[in-house]
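quick one: NAP bound model?
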Amino acid sequence: MTRIGIIGAGHIGGNIARFLARSGHDIMVSFSRSPATLDRLAADTGGRAVSPAEAAAQGEVIVISVPWTAVDAALAAAGGADALAGKIVIDTTNQFGPVAGGFGVLDLGGKSAAEVNAAKAPRATWVKAFNTLTAGFQASASGRTGPDRVVMFYATGSGQAAGTAETLIRDAGFDPVATGTLARADVGHQEPKGDLYGEEFHHDDAIAAVRRLRGTLPAGTGRP
Ligand SMILES: NC(=O)c1ccc[n+]([C@@H]2O[C@H](COP(=O)([O-])OP(=O)(O)OC[C@H]3O[C@@H](n4cnc5c(N)ncnc54)[C@H](OP(=O)(O)O)[C@@H]3O)[C@@H](O)[C@H]2O)c1
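yep, here:
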């Protein structure tokens, strides 16, 4: 059993809370503007509604699952970079925000979204995961078995965090497949505009796709 501190209790954070509660993990949920939402999710998962600072302090693994534009506020509420030092942080965010008078994929100046967030708490060990498939699809596909089991891509620069991420992804009901490090040539393929983003993959096809893509830059996500 792992103590999971979830910061952001919406579609994806709520899913992860439910998936991992079913597998017996200890769940803390935080960072909603509605205390009732947190209380409901805590009741659904047998977990606890806490503050982001408590989630960061008490969680062995921290999940950051807020809109891109709320990441800085979420990290500040958690207690900043120091509060996350030594923790494994699973980042589900995608870089959507204001683009040319509308809403779209932000240009991060050649960096991956995962790298941009990881730089905000550099003594944490960051994992990017749970970001490629819609929340509704994840909720319906979790727990499939055999050849239909759905792949959940993840990326991290740490072998130890990779082991933890794989366990949690399996416990959440998916098949973990690594895209590599947080560098754009690896994780970028699982971020918006990457070839692995938004698509349902199964094990063998996922491995083949990652082998084909790694070391190339995903198209359309900013300057190389
Ligand atoms: N939805 C998807 O299909 C999907 C799929 C893959 C990845 N993602 C990514 O995962 C992240 C979370 O997505 P989501 O769909 O779970 O988001 P969401 O449903 O909007 O949930 C966001 C959570 O952050 C909280 N929050 C606290 N302060 C906030 C603020 N100032 N502005 C906005 N939210 C605030 C929300 O609180 P309240 O309860 O008060 O709203 C909510 O608990 C995003 O970066 C998204 O791009 C989403």
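The mean pLDDT is 96.
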